[in-house]
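Worked problem 6 (solution included).
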Amino acid sequence: MSKELSEGRPWPRFVLTLATAIAGGFVFDLLHLPIPWLLGPMIAVLIGSNLLREHYAWPGRIRNGGMIVVGYTIGLAMTSAALREMVRHLPSMLLMTVFLLLFCAGLAFVVSKLSDADYRTALLGSIPGGLTQVVTLAEETEGIDLTIVTVTQVIRLMMIIICVPLLVFSPIFETAGKGAADTAPAAVQTVASWSSLWPNGLAFAAVCVVLALVGHKIKFPTAFLLGPAIGTAIIQLTGLHGPALPSALINAAQLAIGTNVGLMLKPGRLTHKVRTFSLAIGSGLSLIMGALGLAYLLTTFESVSAATALLSLAPGGMDQMGIIAHEIGADLSMVAGYQVFRTFFIFWPCRR
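Solution. The predicted structure is:
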């Protein structure tokens, strides 16, 4: 997990982390790789923090700020027409979520038999929820090996963040998407200039921050993402339209989230590194293949593109899938709807 800046020599570690993240983003951008300001900082900080170990730090508040920005962009896509479309998809959301969870439960059983981990630890390592929520749940559950859960979840998330953009940008998905175009209403334009943020941007910013903090206080699932998304959607339903965000702000939000993910992986804490990493990689690949199969199934009875279906069902974090959907022009409201539904389906009973 990332360390707060209050722990010894804070600013040099923060500056080094920020410089590494920016350098990674620029390199990925120059190479024209998918989602450069998410993947670049994540990979660069992962390498740097494991070479220099205690010289890196990233405050949780910056990551939360990035989540608020992503939540706002998701909320922009939730117009009244898009919300009606989401309601129409509720039966398929339930069916696909149940299929995915059953697949994960079976996968966890296999992993538990091939490793020293008990079934509950393997299940939390395989469950397709948000990284923060799964780790928090593991911390609160007695008898869970937190290190195994964290490492497995981070490896899975990194594989999904890397593999899913490569898949959706590939010629295979471009071809598949031509026969199954999204029929949901197109999202509003989501990139604009700084001047367009005034004056409506102030009202939306205040609502997003307040709802994020209140949601966090009452232990709302993925509060810093869902709070702003829900608040933005509600305000738009009243007739006040939210301004699109400049690309620089969206890139900064991606950097904040990618850097945090890169710092979470600590291989030195594992006792059986080769076996744990091998099982985590195998589990991640299996989940991606399972999501691909379910995405194909979804496109057979819903008029959506293959890319939108995969992002809706990919067992990654809602923030990362939202970023990718935004970048490739997928149906952001549908992706967010499926990811939000799965988050509540998995974690809401655990909070009671």
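Discussion: The mean pLDDT is 79.
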